[in-house]
């Protein structure tokens, strides 16, 4: 079940990133993050009330709070890095965040079998190549590398934290709700600061575009929430190291979605990376 939940996570995260990427062509990136997460928080709030999730409140929720703080910070660093440096460097480098949950699993005493270790190595190399790393061109600024590594650490921290935020499914709904509330609070504060500084926070046609795009924003937010939920289930049902690596296959999904829907052509290195990532996932699932 670990492999099934983790692969579902990579599918959902990949589709959420693809949808979010399309929306950021019309909206500022921070606005997309805040609005999509706010829509998801509303739906999660209804689910928590309907399932009596408040009864699961306890110390574990602090992990959800921490994940809610780390998430927007990681996203802001990631988007800032993308604005400063080549996406072909930033995108694959950000996947090194998988080292955080893998390291947590090792600290907690998990020891993958040799075949799974090989699978982890093959999958991580494939994930990096699937992002289409830029192998030529001008040197990348140190600030860009720093921001990218900070975002990677943040994304990895969210994966590690959310896996510890609940003990059952009902508690998971509450944890995801709390995570989204904190994310919206911090993201909203950042959005307010940006607006005060004169940055653009709405598309050219104003609030009308927001209302028309709200279903798409909600879909992106809910897909991201579902991915967090399936990842938590994956990490609970098996080794965190295996769950984290399989869940990190989402760049492959995003690249394939762009190929199938937008007709973007994959570079040879991306196709090779996708093949390696899938091979690594097979080794992890069968190890």
Instruction: Output the radius of gyration.
Output: 18 Å
> Helix segment count?
12
SSE ordering = HHHHHHHHHHHH
Oligomer: single chain
Q: What's the β-strand tally?
A: 0
Structural class: mainly alpha
End-to-end separation in angstroms reads 13 Å
* Relative helix content: over 70%
Strand content: under 5%
Largest sheet: none
Rounded mean pLDDT score: 79
Shape: globular
Number of domains: 1
Residue windows where pLDDT falls under 50 for at least 5 positions: none
Pfam family, one: EamA
Family: Belongs to the EamA transporter family.
Protein name: DMT family transporter
Domain EamA: 4-130, 144-285
In short:
It holds the Pfam family EamA. Helix content is 77%, strand content 0%.
């Amino acid at each position: 079940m670990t492999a099934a939940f983790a692969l579902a996570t990579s599918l959902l995260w990949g589709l959420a990133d693809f949808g979010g990427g399309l929306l950021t062509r019309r909206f500022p990136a921070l606005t997309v993050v805040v609005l999509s997460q706010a829509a998801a928080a509303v739906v999660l709030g209804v689910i928590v009330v309907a399932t009596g999730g408040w009864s699961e409140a306890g110390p574990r929720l602090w992990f959800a709070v921490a994940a809610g703080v780390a998430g927007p910070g990681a996203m802001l660093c990631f988007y800032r890095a993308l604005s400063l440096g080549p996406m072909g460097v930033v995108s694959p480098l950000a996947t090194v965040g998988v080292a955080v949950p893998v390291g947590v699993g090792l600290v907690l005493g998990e020891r993958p079998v040799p075949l799974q270790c090989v699978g982890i190595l093959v999958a991580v190399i494939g994930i990096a190549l699937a992002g289409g790393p830029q192998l030529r061109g001008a040197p990348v600024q140190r600030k860009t590398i720093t921001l990218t590594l900070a975002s990677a650490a943040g994304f990895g921290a969210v994966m590690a934290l959310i896996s510890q935020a609940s003990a059952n499914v009902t508690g998971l709904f509450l944890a995801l709700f709390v995570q989204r509330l904190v994310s919206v609070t911090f993201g909203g504060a950042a959005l307010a600061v940006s607006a005060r500084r004169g940055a653009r926070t709405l598309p050219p046609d104003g609030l009308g575009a927001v209302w028309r795009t709200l279903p798409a924003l909600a879909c992106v937010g809910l897909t991201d929430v579902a991915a967090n939920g399936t990842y938590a289930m994956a990490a609970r049902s098996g080794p965190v190291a295996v769950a984290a690596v399989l869940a990190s296959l989402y760049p492959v999904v995003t690249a394939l979605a762009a190929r199938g829907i937008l007709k973007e052509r994959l570079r040879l290195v991306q196709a090779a990376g996708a093949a390696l990532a899938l091979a690594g996932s097979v080794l992890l699932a069968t190890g």
